[in-house]
Give the backbone structure.
Amino acid sequence: MAGIVTASMPVWEVVNEAAGTTAFCTLNEGLGKVLRYGAYAPEVIERLRWMRDVLGPALAAALERHGPLDLRSLIAQALQMGDEGHNRNRAGTSLVIRELAPFLVEDESLPRARVAEVLRFLHGNDHFFLNLTMPAAKSAVAAIADLPWSSVVSVMARNGVEFGIRLAGLGPRWFVGEASVVEGLYLPGFKAEDAARDIGDSVITETSGIGGFAMAAAPAIVQFVGGRASDALRLTQRMYAITLAESEAYKIPALDFRGTPTAIDVVKLVETGVLPVVNTGIAHKEPGVGMVGAGLVRPPLACYHAALAAFVDAYDERARAEL
């Protein structure tokens, strides 16, 4: 969950037209032995070359004919079809296939066998849409990346050693704590001793108000991360206690179409002691093995305490300067 990006790899470009922000993300390789899990084997390189030479150009041509994908609309639809935008992306991937398939088929420059390859790859990769929800989330929260006086969490990320956050009102400054152990379900042949600590930047989805914050929209996710369907409802409802708003676009049918909780407020978080809920994949502690399970994880409270203390200090300093 710490792969690299090279100049030859195709990427999605996601533009937040309202805010003027842009985010990028590679195309999702699927699960198992893939580059983003540290794997560097012949089959990994072969797949990446196919994505560069076949998948990327085919999708680019289809998008050229289709026009930009309306990701906010697609994510909103996916949430109402049982996705939450982080670990369950079956509906979102299906919607992308529906959008682009006619334009792939109509491309006379693509041999039918190539079209079949592309559609078969998309069909077999339920996580394909994840690499669109992540940059969509990033382009959304990037709009508040340097918002004066704001106590809203603008970034959350983890590297297997530390979990770090940023506050909108404090710009690029990081506040960190020790990365947590993920509690979840393991794939056959693996156990907790095999797992790395919490790692990856996909938690940007929760930062924007989907993923774990939208689990009530995806009760079936508990079959992947553990727990019961009622837990999905309960965890989403708890997130309203630490957020400032409800999404106007992303609605949860099981909560009478209430908007997902969004805009994590570090003040409310520290006051309540309620931590963000994140559902995530679990990587093996050794490179190249890949995903060994999935589960739920809570960030370390220490990074939020440190961020709030720094925010208060900065607030007081600014206030004194203005007197």
Observations:
- The longest helix spans residues 42-66.
- The chain is about 40% helix and 20% strand.
